[in-house]
């Protein structure tokens, strides 16, 4: 077989190999998987309408404004299944045929996808749609229970994308729209633009934006109590083809760019263009990866009580190539980003013999005022009070060299979370003060499969509390929002929108389950005998988020056994669902461990007794052993008193018909197939390790015999691995630079 084919088949088989190792005590498996029907979500969708991917929270109106294809909805913020109003915004037949004549798909692309929804100072809304590849914007108001488009259409070029499949970003500040999108039909003129009385935008130069994919935008009040008299900033996150790299044709890198809000452009040079556009590369160093990971979404988290410098950007990264199914979260300090722009060195292009241009660190003189800096006290002292006064030397410098030399590293220089499986798409972070008084950052991560992960990092140990399937279909999560007022999460996908609370503590029915969930929002109320939300209880609750200390729960009383009787020769299944993905179940008969046999089969969710005989009568107990950070905890999940005789069936178990489960040829056949698969997998793995096609085993699926093998330890291991892995990465950097 061709080596590539072989390694491809190994990659295909790897998930299988990892599921075989499922019993590892504490890996990055979500503790619980909540199926669609178990989620107490409010859902919204309307027949025939798709692409619910734009959201605006109007807490002042108690509304969630939801943008979909050709429609905008005003939904009750407390229960989005209640529609308050809606308005259609369809393309005209003429627009559709023009779009079709330009070669676009009339049913998919030549529609009006609502892409921009913002609130204006006067509380009206600003809304834009792709409008059959001819973007338009309008104003919208909500009054008397109606959504009204005001029909004050304006050109949406540079504000809203032409192409509904293209990524974009925008924010509204003081009625100025900052937008990052493409300005033309072909999508070949990317811009970061401010639409104000005088519009300011980026240059059309590959050194400014090079086939970018825009991700998100955020503003930072950096002028607040600033002793340098600095200006407020707008940050833009995106990925683009690296100009500074000549080693790969199409190497894509992650970037952060920023502009100053007070920027008015230059007088002669950079007229009506940003004089403060600077960008830098961002890195999220995932173990084993040679190619940089690509940024997909960010969430700005700021503590209202603290200085803006302490704000954090939580960012999602996914691999550049399809050969890996890892996703990562990296966290960046705003102060680290800001410092690179304020003090860092620049990169400069130098021509080399071939037609190439190489980008190297600029080591010459830097003009004053500093290129790309906002107007600050120092500039004002020199008589420069606005960007129009900036000297040409400074402007020419930044026009030619908008790229910083330094790469911005995440906190700890490594990801906070790496996970194999469904690709991450969106992230939200919420801070919760747990019962121990500490504040934890809880991450809610949307995936390509339409699930939502809830994860917390406890002192370096990554813990995924649960994975929730929000939608019946597997559509990717396209947007995630959090309302500080309702304390609810809102998610949108192509098929609909969903609303869920930050926690559903009542899903845990026992103290042990409630404590081992390590959910900072939930605690066990001894008096009520219930797992309840911290915010809704005045009492002291049992909670142990850092350790998952189950000893805090007093022993649950003995479980009342279920009577189960069975005919001799009959079959029965005694049910015992696993309380969590981190637990293992085992069975006892009359207080002695049960040894499985042909006739006594251990299933995922119970025990199967075939061809019962008198010797099978007795007391059956199903135990669950769950490893937590510090210890392992055993609980009784179910108990059965099995008697042989004619008295009908009991409650817990159920009689299985003899023909339903036999050691017939089908089972044997399956076993042979599985055995063959496993053997071929082992051969392939061995061959690939030998050939070095496959890196060393992955961090979060590994078993560790001696210790508990927690994610935390794996994290430390991976850091050590990373030291080794850093060398090639550095070599690559040199490639980029020298
Ligand atoms: C819109 O939704 C449809 C139906 O799910 C999907 O096929 C299409 O890719 C979506 N388009 C965009 C631009 O998201
Ligand atoms: C959240 O809302 C409360 C009032 O409900 C407000 O005091 C607080 O500042 C808000 N926090 C953020 C981060 O917006
Ligand atoms: C767990 O809780 C028990 C009971 O309060 C306590 O004795 C024990 O030290 C705790 N274990 C850890 C590791 O904190
Ligand atoms: C089970 O049977 C015993 C007698 O064998 C009886 O005392 C007990 O109440 C029964 N339990 C239930 C739940 O029916
Ligand atoms: C069931 O068990 C009895 C002995 O207890 C045995 O004689 C009989 O062959 C078994 N039946 C099957 C179908 O295995």
TrEMBL record:
The chain crosses the membrane at residues 669-690. GO terms for molecular function: chemorepellent activity; semaphorin receptor binding. Its main location: membrane. Coiled coil: none annotated. Residues 558-638 form the Ig-like domain. It comes from the Eukaryota. It is found in: Membrane. Residues 15-502 form the Sema domain. The keyword Glycoprotein applies. Keywords: Developmental protein, Differentiation, Disulfide bond, Glycoprotein, Membrane, Neurogenesis, Signal, Transmembrane, Transmembrane helix. PANTHER family: SEMAPHORIN, SEMAPHORIN 4D ISOFORM X1-RELATED. This is Semaphorin-1A.
